[in-house]
Amino acid sequence: MNNVFFGGAFDPIHNAHLSMAKYIVEKGLASKILFVPVYNPPHRKDHILSKYKDRLNMLELAIEGSPDFLVSDIESRIDTPSYTYRTLKHLQKELNTSISLMIGEDQLSVFNTWFEYKKIIDQFQLIIFNRSKKISEELMNLLKDKDVIWTDLKHKKISSTMIRQKIKENKYEDIEDHLPEKVLKYIKENGLYRS
Fold first, then answer.
1. Cα 192 from chain centre
2. Which of 97, 149, 153 lies closest to 125, judged by CA?
3. Could you tell me which of 23, 13, 25 has the C-alpha nearest to residue 62?
4. For the chain, where are the alpha helices, taking DSSP H only?
5. Whole-angstrom distance between the N-terminal and C-terminal Cα of the chain?
6. What does DSSP say about strands 69-71 and 32-37: parallel, antiparallel, or unpaired?
7. Domains of the chain, CATH where assigned
8. What is the gyration radius of the CA atoms in the chain, in angstroms?
9. How does pLDDT run across 154-178, given as a tens digit for each residue?
10. pLDDT tens digits for 30-53?
11. pTM above 0.70, yes or no
12. Which among 99, 161, 153, 95 is positioned nearest to 128, based on CA atoms?
């Protein structure tokens, strides 16, 4: 079995992220899930990310006690901007093992804008969470006959954007069931997302 790369802003990590990762392990699709917080994303224009160290700390707290989950800081150690293809190649070399890429529906919708996305498709197994099944014909043609695993895990729709907004509005009670308890405590203690 291989390691599965789960990249993202994780700003903050929430329970839907964790349920996706657990699902992959429970289905026997991975021996380890590597949570890789983005360091300097080329696509992120919608908001300024929280400090990398805070996002890394929240990930560590969220996976505490889960031996199948690991956090990697590789993106802070390689050239920026943080392109998934580069990170996958570095991880593959560093770990000397095969790596799959886990992506969700929101990432899939813009996948054809990613740096070297065709090389990703050719060189790595993809595990795709896609509930709506709405995929462009171009992308479907590219994925045809490639190493792709489709999954349609049903989970509660949670977004980091919504969580940040609720915190800004001081509505912590609305998000208590969306975040691991230790992550929520860290957010409160460090005053994250207040402004």
1. 20
2. 149
3. 13
4. 15-26, 52-63, 84-95, 105-108, 117-123, 137-143, 160-168, 181-190
5. 43
6. parallel
7. 3-155 (3.40.50.620)
8. 16
9. 767 889 999 999 999 999 999 999 9
10. 999 999 999 988 875 666 899 999
11. yes
12. 153
